[in-house]
Amino acid sequence: MKLSRLTNSPIFILVGSLVLIAAFSLSVRFIHLEKGFKARHDQYFTQNGDPLMTTLDAYHFMTAVKHKLKGKKERGPGASPLLVVLTAGLQKATKSSLEKTAFFLPPLLAAFMALIYWWWGREFGGAFFWLMAGLIGMGSFYYYMRTCLGRFDTDSLIPFFAYGTAYFAFKFSTVERLRNRCVYLGAALLMSTLFYFWWIPARYVIPLLLLGPYTLSLFFWPCGRTERFAKTGLIVTGLLAALFVFFGFYSFLPENVSSLFDRPIDFIQLAVGGSGSGKPDVGISILELKPATWALYTRSLAGHPVLFILSLAGFVLLIAKNLRLAPLVAPLLLLAAASVLARRFLIFVVPLYAFGLAYVFTWAFHSNAFNRLPVPKTARNLIIIVSAVLAIALNSARAYGTTIEPKLSVYHVGIAQAIKAKAPEDAMVWSWWDNGYFLEYYTERAVIIHGGSQTPERMFIAAFPLAADDPLLARNWMKFFAARGKGGLRRMVLKLKDPARAAAFLKESFSHPERLKATLGKFGLRNEKKWRRYLFPKANVFLYLSNDLVDKTHWWFYFGSARDYTSGGIHPFIKRLFRGRFSIDETKGLLMEGRNRIPISQLYHARFMPRPRVIRRQEFGATSGAAVLWVRDFQIAYVFDQNLHRSLFAQLLLLNPLRPPPGFKPVKFAPFQGGAWQVE
User: At what angle do helices 349-366 and 377-401 cross, to 10 degrees?
Assistant: First the structure.
């Protein structure tokens, strides 16, 4: 069939291409049920047969769904987004477990992107173009990774609503018939409204998606005098507003007006990986806020550098041949360009990459260079089609071959359930922030911090006791903040007029409760009875530590070892070495890893089975050397510096999980997984 006929898009080609794109998308994702999840069933499914999620943020939405099903009202913006409402309805209708509903839903929602490739493809080329773009986009490893089984998050429909909103806004801006304009305007407003309720931060990008195509159409499409005036006014207003914000002039406005700019500016600064203040940047430890690398673009997005380079060339050709479509592309190109600053925006790059690569093959059909080849036209077309199929295969090979595994195991679920069984309903679970949502879901208890509360103050509060070298200080710190919350720190800062003095006062008070009167006098405070009652409240606290914190020590210890929440701390050294990659000279006190020679200060000989215990401890003369935990029955070594050696984290998770320091009582421990302790 000729390409011109394909472009005419008979209904069977339209429906067939949409079905093919959706089926391809589902096959990329559901094939991993057999290749990964069922092959390792005991690790990926609980005893009830419920699957674990492949992102920790999933448990935030699952908790919200659970609350909605129980009729509990959530507070705050975005407490019950459209994802929660949809999932609650599906769970009721299917009578399936919430875990199974959340597990299978993302790939089904991702299939809606087939409509985007159809809508946009009609503007750029026709059926062959949108079919190619759809197969490329759906098979991109990065898009698969964000919409795979168990990726219960808003990612699955974010590009659908973003690209859909811009498309209908563009159509409204360029068609002439009033009836059609009204239809497209209604569709654009509907898509943007759904986008807002699907993903609350969309409110910061919806104006760009709605007004971008409309205002930019002034330079590429004819319009009446009134509309030209309106578009010009919007462009001038937008530029002035951008300059107003960029140069900080909004700060000269009355406070009740200038405060309106705070949230959008904070969102933009956090989204691109900056805190916008003198405080430690809370985004530096969040992977999604780091800049996208060349490897991410070429391997995760495209599957191969050649495909990415071809896509860039194709995209340039696409825009050069379709300049009138620039108003449609520009807003999404701006969002995609933000991935250079923060990789979370890579999800907006995927369709543009797919359009660029698809256009290379569409252009080849019409290229005079190909038409002049001394071979029959059918053979030329066959060469192009085979090349396109190979490109699709190379593009999707990594997605087909890689199972995205759950972030946590059934052992972690068991630890969380042990906390739930032992903890009173008013108890707080203490952990590092990325486990907060998971613990909130399985323990049904409050947590000290989670993925939505990563302020500098709360990061410091949560990390400090893990890095502390005094168990009594750590114990009192956790009980105080479990009862008083972040407001306890703010009160002390207001009282002592300085964050450093406030933190120093709390540390000294909690380390030496018996000397509280002297400490109060030192900091200019009086009334020991009142302060003792305030500083040492009764609180039920359970500490949760997972083994993945070993790999994240670089950041949580940085926050926890700081003087206060306005400054940074220490980046410690810790390394996990596996069988055959190290040896230990017990006579010289040296650990050998290849050519590296690491002096040892303390060497702990441990066995983890049938229960973890240190069987022997050796001291060496290298006072600044490393501490080494040598797990003899697994031939694994943990090597860490003296800062970590003295920390509560190391004492509990690595060295003495079942014989912890006073004030901590074991609840449940799983070797190489994690554990929980009651703070007494």
Answer: 160
